[in-house]
Design a protein that fits this description.
Helix content is about 80%, strand content about 0%. The protein is mainly alpha-helical and about 450 residues long. The chain has a single domain, classed as Growth Hormone, Chain: A (Up-down Bundle), CATH 1.20.1250.20. Helix 6 packs antiparallel against helix 7, helix 6 packs antiparallel against helix 12 and helix 6 packs antiparallel against helix 14. The chain is globular.
Length: about 450
């Protein structure tokens, strides 16, 4: 059944006099936000636990920084090849089956990473993990466009972005505890147990997705016909606005905004993964034990939970995206400067990593409403995936470049200077090349209907 199957009758829609759409959107949020948060948390956990595995795996298997950096980077190469096709498939078969496929297969590969013995094994496992995880995040972002008009998406993205925060809070202490206490159990090393025990939950949750996730508003039993009609009316009004939008795949590719936003997201993800991937080694180099490293690594993510909430709420309240993004990116630059200038200080390192992690999460929250607002429904599936794919290249470039720079120079500082330069480019592109009317569209393309949600 499509949206057209439900007649959008103004008399059936919810009026502001009766409380507007607030109760309806709250009902929707209670249903889908926890699923997106948990799914993203599990994805991020299986993506970043490689950083904690290196505390033991380098010694056990004899991998150097270059091998490890390449393995971390090659994940994003597999991700790159399959992200756009995955989002296009989601548009055809629905979110429920697509998310099930993604989560189950990546959970299996994540657990099987425990069997690696050579660099080739390591590269293959990470490449397959990238292939199977591809499409989850842009799929979730596309999924939100099926339910919410643009001006509400930053709040939902902020909730979804808590997934990596929850994963970051859990990953450090959990991974360090598994590596420390399970080492040698049943003949397996601690890092092997970590991959197994952190991969299985993704498979189990994938099965739950088949029963928990609904594809679109017109297909759910927990909304009344009036609520369905009101939600669909909001979405159709937004997509039918007169603001110029690319309406086809070719038009989206020809639109320079697509490539500017891709560049901006690339710079941010480079910096985010520089912080998350090297965080365990930075903290351990400051004198912490493996268990202490895991505990301390939760601090930046705890702080970023507040930063995400405040950043998303303030951006929506002030109806502004670009300067919020730029301020958060500038906080990341300060964090990298602290890492370079205060090397070896545990307190300074934790402050610096907090600025980097928190700033990066806020950047993502206030960034994604921009492309999801200017893309039409027909171009959104490929456009969101393309922008995210370009950004994910940052996840490939960052650990690969920093790993080789560290191995070549023996000093991570040179790689951090590179991150500062990239973030500077990202801020300049956001403030100079992204037109202000994109922000206007994100908040006013459905202005009359949006009043119902106030």
């Amino acid at each position: 059944m499509s949206f057209d199957a439900i007649q959008v009758n103004p008399s059936a829609t919810l009026s502001s006099a009766n409380g507007g759409l607030d109760p309806t959107y709250r009902k929707i949020t209670r249903r889908i936000a926890p699923i997106l948060l948990i799914g993203y948390a599990l994805a991020f956990l299986d993506r970043i636990n490689i950083g904690f595995a290196q505390l033991q795996i380098k010694t056990d298997l004899g991998f150097n920084d270059a091998v490890y950096g390449t393995a971390a980077a090659i994940f994003f190469l597999g991700y790159l090849f399959c992200e756009v096709p995955s989002n296009l498939l989601l548009e055809k078969i629905g979110a429920r089956l697509t998310v099930f496929r993604i989560m189950f297969l990546w959970g299996v590969v994540a657990a099987l990473t425990s069997l690696i013995q050579t660099p080739g094994h390591f590269y293959a496992a990470r490449f397959l993990l990238g292939i199977f995880e591809a499409g989850l995040v842009p799929g979730f972002i596309l999924y939100l466009t099926y339910w919410y008009p643009p001006r509400h998406r930053a709040k939902l993205l902020a909730l979804m972005q808590l997934g990596p925060v929850v994963a970051g809070i859990i990953a450090g202490p959990l991974s360090a505890w598994i590596i420390s206490t399970m080492d040698g159990a049943y003949g397996l090393m601690g890092w092997q147990w970590m991959f197994i025990l952190e991969g299985i939950p993704s498979c189990l949750f994938a099965i739950g997705i088949l029963f928990l996730l609904e594809d679109k508003p017109d297909r759910v039993a927990w909304l009344s016909d009036a609520e369905k009609s009101a939600v669909i009316s909001q979405l159709q009004t937004v997509d039918g606005s007169t603001t110029e939008k690319p309406t086809t795949f070719r038009a989206m590719l020809a639109d320079k905004r697509t490539w500017v936003l891709t560049l901006i997201y690339f710079t941010v993800l480079c910096a985010i993964y520089a912080g998350t991937f090297w965080m365990p080694m930075i903290i351990k180099a400051s004198g912490a034990t493996i268990l202490q490293t895991g505990l301390y690594s939760a601090i930046p993510f705890l702080v970023s939970a507040f930063a995400i909430w405040f950043g998303g709420k303030n951006s929506d309240a002030k109806r502004e995206r670009r300067w919020h993004f730029s301020a958060a990116a500038f906080a990341m630059i300060i964090g990298f400067i602290l890492l370079i200038t205060m090397k070896g200080s545990l307190v300074a390192s934790l402050i610096a990593l907090t600025l980097i992690i928190s700033g990066g999460q806020v950047c993502a929250v206030v960034f994604w409403p921009i492309p999801s607002a200017y893309l039409s429904a027909t171009a959104a599936a490929a456009g969101i995936a393309l922008i995210n794919t370009g950004g994910v290249m940052g996840g490939f470039v960052s650990p690969f470049a920093l790993g080789y720079i560290q191995a070549w120079t023996g000093d991570l500082a040179y790689g951090l200077y590179f991150m500062i330069a990239l973030l500077t480019v990202g801020i300049a592109a956001m403030l100079i090349l992204v037109p202000a009317n994109i922000e206007t569209q994100a908040f006013s393309s459905n202005r009359p209907a949006a009043q119902d949600c106030e």
